[in-house]
Amino acid sequence: MRPVVIAHRGASAYLPEHTVPAKVLAYAMGADYLEQDVVASRDDELVVLHDIYLDRVSNVAEAFPDRHRDDGRYYVRDFDLAELLELRVWERFDAEGAPVYPGRYPGRTGNFRLHSLRTELELVRHLNTSTEARTGIYPEIKRPAWHRAQGIDIAPLLLELLEEFDYRNNSDPVYVQCFDANEVVRLRRELGCPLKLVQLIGENEWAESETDYAFLQTDAGLQQIAAVADGIGPRLEHCMRVSGAQVRASGLVERAHKLALAVHPYTVRADSLPDGFSSHDALVTFCVAELKVDGLFSDFPDETRRQILALEPASRPAAPQ
Ligand code: CA
Q1: Residue 61 Cα, ligand 1 centroid: separation in angstroms?
Q2: Per the omega criterion (within 30 degrees of 0), is the bond before 109 cis?
Q3: Which of 8, 115, 238, 280 is catalytic?
Q4: Which of 64, 177, 220, 253 is most buried, judged by most C-beta within 10 A?
Q5: How far out from the chain centre does Cα 319 lie?
Q6: How does pLDDT run across 111-159, given as a tens digit for each residue?
Q7: Residue 311 and residue 280 in contact, taking contact as beta carbons nearer than 8 Å
Q8: Which residue of the set 18, 50, 115, 147 is catalytic?
Q9: How far is the CA of 201 from the centre of ligand 1 (A)?
Q10: Cα–Cα distance for residue pair 216/179, rounded to 1 Å
Q11: 100-118, pLDDT tens digit by residue?
């Protein structure tokens, strides 16, 4: 099976992440899956946005100057969907106000907006109808424990919405992903999620959840994941060992495959390569030919897809006679 391309926050290298234009572009570029990060509004609507915060990607501080919390941050959870839809969205800035990825769609201009998960699911359904494609979706439940402490439980709402859009079986084109290992177990065992599940693997110092990501990468950790999930989403760096210009497999992908887990590492960025690689194509070639990954999250779905297809034996042109 050809490795799948998961458009990370849409075609986020080219347009502001998680906007409808970024999703449409990724769709047109032939991504196999479009990723949705899912957070909740004050009126309990599911919204597509990477963070629980609004301030690094929108004009929220200008539009609603008094609506930050004591830490100075503006939280999606403190705004109704109708208010969120009023915001303008732009490229991602860091805490100092500098672009995180200089060279991408620049500045604080344009008419880009947030949207609900429902809007995106409708978009994908309609595009799949009009193009006769079967592009999949890849929703991530963001910070489930934090959201519950804020009075909302995202997982059941997400599963209900996915069922409404006819995502009902393990064979349907959807992966549900989460960093929180307790939530992945709960999705399968308590909530009876019938869909493919992916356990994301981060770094303990990110404090993303209480999950021990070092343990998850051990054989015992992978066995625990395999009991409930269909795949893992590790960092690219988890899958390789780099010393100088030499890069070799860490063994994680191979050990996961022995447990029948699919492996979809994140994130391929042509403008921010991991150590040991000098080009996007070299990175993708290593991931496909050496690591034998089953898919890649990419900010550059067009380039990643092109290189994956170039590596397919069947797609190579015949040698001249
Ligand atoms: Ca994500």
Answers
A1: 24
A2: no
A3: 8
A4: 177
A5: 38
A6: 999 999 999 999 999 999 999 999 999 999 999 999 999 999 999 999 9
A7: no
A8: 50
A9: 11
A10: 11
A11: 999 999 989 899 999 999 9
